[in-house]
Amino acid sequence: MKTKVLAIDDSRTIRNLLAATLEEAGFEYHCAVDGREGVDMYPDVDPDVVITDINMPNLDGFGVIEELRGTGINSKVPILVLTTESAPELKSRARGAGATGWITKPFDDASLIFALKRVTGAAA
Amino acid sequence: MQAEAKQTDQEVKHAEHSEFVSFTVAGQAFCLKITQIREIRRWSPVTILPHAPADVLGVMNLRGAVIPIYDLSARFGLQQTEASERNVVIVVSVHGKPVGLLAESVSEIISINPDDIQDTPPVDSRNTMEYIQGIISHDDTMVRIINLDAVISAPEQVMP
Amino acid sequence: MSGSIQDTFFEECEELLEATDEGLTAIEGGDHDPETVNAIFRAVHSIKGGAGAFGLDDLVAFAHRFETVFDEVRAGRMELDGKLIQLLLRSSDQLSALVEVARDGGEIDEAHNDTLLAALDEYIPEEEEDLTFEPMGLGAPAPVADLGIVPEAPAEPQEETYRIRFQPLKEMYGTGNEPFFLFQALKDMGDLTVKLDENELPGFDAMDMSESYLAWDITLVTKDSRSMVEAVFEFVEGLCELSIDGEGDAEAEANALAALDAMFSTPDAPPAPPAADAAEGEAPAVPFEPPVPAPEPEAKPAPAEEKASAPKAESGKQEQRGGPKPTLRVELERVDRLINAVGELIINHSMLAQQIANLDVSDTRDVETELEGFKNLARDIQEGVMAIRAQPVKPLFQRMARIVREASAATGKTCKLVNVGENTEVDKTVIERLSDPLTHILRNAVDHGVEKPEDREAAGKSKVGEIQLSASHRSGSVCIEIKDDGAGVNRPRVKQIAIEKGLIPENAELTDGEIDNLLFAPGFSTAKEVSNLSGRGVGMDVVKNAVTGLGGRINISSTPGKGSTFTIILPLTLAVMDGMVVSVADQTMVVPITSIVETMRGSDDMINSLGADGTLLSIRGNFVPICDVAGSLGLYRESDQQAGVYLLVETETGQRCALAVDDIHDQRQVVIKSLDGVCGEIAGVAAATILGDGKIAMILDPESIIAASPTAAAFDTERRMSNAS
C-alpha cells in the first residue's frame, strides 16, 4: 500500500512541487490549502504522514500540530514542518508542539524523500 | 529456396506500391500521392484576396476554416485557369495546414511502383525542376509527380 | 513538469503581489486589521518559498528582507508609519519587477535594488541582520544541505565503520519519531547491525509507561560521510542520547553535536506512549532486516481504499475556502475552442436563415419564430462563453498604481491614482494588450499632465495630483478613461512642436480638438521633447496604434488648467465584432462599425474634383477626401456599378475620409477569422469572416486602406494645406 501524505500549504507552487515529487516517488498525495482544511481533512485522508507549512491563513502550522496531537484527534502520525527559516527557535517551537521533523524550503527531491523516509520508513 | 526468395521479393515490391491520384492541369497529367490528399471538391467561386499574386485565387470556407486556393496551372507557369464548375479543388495538407489546389479535372487512381519513377529530365525551367519530383509513364501518357512542399512553400511566404 | 510548476509559481506570484499591493494600499488608507498585515506577510513569504524552489536568488534575497521587516511589524515591534509604508510599497513594486525579470528575463536595476535593500535594512534590528536565508543554517555540519547527493556518496569514499549509541528520551515518542524508521534509513547506507540494550528495563511492576528504557547499539559500515549519518538523526537531536564514533575520528565532531544539542532546549513534550516493543524480550545482536515487527504507534486504522473521498482536485476547492465563489481553472485553449465552435454556430444560424428565406414556401412564420429562438440561444451561448474569457480589470489597474508611483518618484511630483470600476470585466487578451498603452498614458499624465507641487499650489490646487483611471461598460463597448487634474494640453506649445516637426503648415488653423489630437500624430513626440520617463522613444501614436489594433478608438479632451481626459473605447471581445456588410467590386466585405462615423449615399453634386484625379465629398459644407476602396485594394469592377455609398471614417490623425463602396447591405455581428497562416499580411485587410451563405468576406482595416490609397493620403495633406490657407 502506498504511503499516504497529507500536505498542508497555502502556496499553490509548493503544493504542486510536493505533488510532483511525491507522486513520482510513489506516494499517495493529498493536500489542503490551509491549516483549518488540513485538520478537517485529516480523519478522511487518514495519512501516514503530514507535511505542513507554518505561515498559513485560518490556522497556522503550529495550530495544525496542536490540533492533530491534541486530545480531540490524538494523532501519532509523523508531522513534518515546512519552513523557510533555519531559525532554531522555530524548529524548537514546532517540536514543542509535537512536530516530528522539518523540511527546509527550498527543498530538493532527495531531501524531501529522505525526510519522509526517516519518519515513515517509506522510500515511497 | 530460390523460388521462395523470389516470391518474397515480389511481395516486398508489391507492398511498396503507392497509390496516386492523377489529374490534369492545363492539359498535362499530374499526380499526387493519395495520402497527401484530404478531399476533392467541385470548384465554387472563392473570395478574392486583395493584392494577391496571379496564382493565388483566393480563400474558401472549408467547414469553418479559411483556406487559400492556388491555381496550379499558374503556379507551374502555364496559362491561368478560367475556373468553372467543371473544375475541381484538391485539398491537400501542407505544413499541417489545409490548402486547396485548382485542377482541371481528376482522372483516376493509379498504383505506382517506386522503381518505375524516373527522375525529371533536365529542362530549362527551374520552376519545373523544383515542382516536379519525378515522372512516370502510365497508359502511354507521361504523368508528373508533384513535389508538394516545393509548390506550396510555408504559408507565411506565399504572399510577399 | 517543472516548467508547468514554474508557470504556476509565476501565476501565483501575480496573485500574491496583488494581495500584497492591496494590503499595503489598505494599510495606507488606515486599515489596522492585524490580519491584513498577516496576509501580506504570508504572501511575501510564499513568494520567497516558491522562488527558493526555483533558485531565483535575487527574488529570494529581496523577499526575505521585505519579510523580515514585515515580521517586525507583525510582531508589533515596529510602527507602520507613512515613510515605511511608502518604502514597502516601493519594495512591493521591486518584488514585482524581480518576478518579471525572473519570468521574462531582462536586467535587474541593481542600483535601485540595492538602494531598497539598504533602506529595508535600516528597519531590521541588529541581531537579526545576519539571519540570511540559507537552507539549514545549523551552524554545525549542515546535514540537509548535503542531502542533495543522498544516497550516492561522493567519488571514491572510504568505507567506514560507525558505532552508534542511541538512547531515546521519553520526549522523543511524543514527536512521532520512531527508532525503527531511523534504523531503516541507516540500513540504506550500508551494513547495519542493531543490538537492543534493555538493561535499563525495570521489572514489570516498576515500569512507568511514560518512560523510555530502551537503548540501541548500532554498527554501521558505510561509505557515506559522517554528516550524512548524523543527518539521519537530525529530527531526534536533543530528544535522545546519541553518540556516533567513527573508527578514525573521535575528535571535534562531538562539538558539533553538542552545538546541535544546545540548540534545542528540551521541549515539554506531551505524555509519551510507552515504547511499544518494550516487552519484546531478549534481543540478540542480529543483522538488521526490515521485516522486524515495526513498532507501530497505534493499531493502523481501516484501509484507505474505503475512504477514497479524500479530495484531490485542489484548485477547485482552494478558492472555496477563501470566501469567494468557487472557480475552475481551465486551459485557455479549451475556452478558445469553444468560442470557435460558438462562432460556427452563429454562422450556421445565418446560413440557415438565408436558406429558409430562399425556400419557395408560402408560410415560414413558424420556422422563423423557431429560428429567432435559435438566434437568441446562440447569442446567449456566445455571451456566456465570452464571459469566461472576461476578467476584471482590477489586476491591471493595480499594476498601474505602481506605474504612477514610479513615475511620481522619478519626476519629483506627488500623484495618486484613483481606480474606478475595477470590477469591470474585459476580454483577457484586451486586458493583456492594454497594459502598454495604459502605462504610457499614465506616465505621460504624471510627466506632462500633472504640474509640480509648487505650481499646483500656486494654481490653488491640492499639492497631490489626482489621476483617475476608470472602466465601465458603455453600450456594448468598454470605456476606459484616464483623467488627470493637471494643467491640460499646452496647445500653443503642441502646435509649435507640430509645426517644428513639419506635421502641420506654419499657418495652419486648427480647432482645439485637432490640436489635442496632434499628440497622437506619428512623429509628434521625440526624445528631445519628452523627459526620459515617458519618452523611451515612443509617442502617443504607438498608444493609438495599440488601441486601434484592438479594434478600439482613443480620444483626448482637455481643459486648460483643469486637466486632460483620455477616453479609450474598446470592443467587448476580439472574437466577434459588429460590422457593416458592404459590397466592393462584386465582393462582399465587412467594415468594423467602430471605425465608421457616418454613412451616406452620395449624389453627383456632392462630389468635387480636385487636381487631376482627386475627389472630395462635400458633407454639410465640409470637404472630405474620397478613398475608393476597390481601387485601394487593387480590385476592378466588372459591372459598371459605381461606388455610390460613402462610409465616413476617421484617420489616425483625426482627419476624416470617405470610403467609397458600391453598396451597404446590413449591419451584423460577424465572427473574426484570422488570416494568419493563410496568407501574409494584406494591406487594407484586417481579418476574414464567414457570411451566412458560407462565403468568406474580408474584414477591412480602414486605416490601412486609406494609407494604401495614394489619393486619399495626398488629400489628407492637402486638406491641412487648405485649412491653412
Taking the alpha carbons of the first and last residues of chain A, their distance comes to 10 Å
Structural class of chain A: alpha/beta
Provide the CATH topology of the largest domain in chain C: Heat Shock Protein 90
Unreliable parts of chain C: 128-154, 263-322, 526-537, 715-725
* Tally of distinct domains of chain A: 1
- Strand share of the residues of chain A? 15-25%
Rounded to an integer, what's the Rg of chain A over CA atoms?
Answer: 13 Å
Return the string of H and E elements of chain A. EHEHEHEHEH
How would a textbook summarize the main sheet of chain A? 5 strands, parallel
Q: What's the average pLDDT of chain C?
A: 75
| Residue fraction in strands of chain C | 15-25%
Please count the helical segments of chain C.
21
Could you say which structural class the secondary elements and strand pairing of chain C correspond to?
A: alpha+beta
| Morphology of chain C | elongated
Strand numbers in spatial order across the main sheet of chain A: 2-1-3-4-5
Q: How would you characterize this protein structure?
A:
With 124 residues, chain A is an alpha/beta fold. Chain A has a single domain (4-120), classed as Rossmann fold (3-Layer(aba) Sandwich), CATH 3.40.50. Helices cover 44% and strands 19% of the residues of chain A. Chain A is built from 5 helices and 5 strands. Chain A has helices at 12-24, 35-45, 61-69, 88-97, 109-120, and strands spanning 4-8, 28-32, 49-53, 79-83, 101-104. In chain A, β3, α3 and β4 (79-83) form a beta-alpha-beta unit. In chain A, α2 runs parallel beside α3 (61-69). The longest helix of chain A is centred in the first third of the chain and has 13 residues, at 12-24. The radius of gyration of chain A is 13 Å and the shape is globular. Chain B is of the alpha+beta class and 160 residues long. Helix content of chain B is 21%, strand content 43%. Chain B has 5 helices and 10 strands. In chain B, strands 8-1-2-10-9 form a 5-stranded mixed beta sheet. Chain B has a 5-stranded mixed beta sheet with strand order 3-6-7-5-4. With 725 residues, chain C is of the alpha+beta class. Chain C folds into 5 domains: 2-128, Four Helix Bundle (Hemerythrin (Met), subunit A) (Up-down Bundle), CATH 1.20.120; 143-287, no CATH class; 333-390; 393-571, Heat Shock Protein 90; 576-724, Beta Barrel (OB fold (Dihydrolipoamide Acetyltransferase, E2P)). Chain C contains 21 helices and 23 strands. The longest helix of chain C is centred in the first third of the chain and has 27 residues, at 2-28. The two termini of chain C are 68 Å apart. Chains in contact: A-C, B-C. At the A-C interface, α1, β2, α2, α4 and β5 of A face α1, α2, α7 and α10 of C.
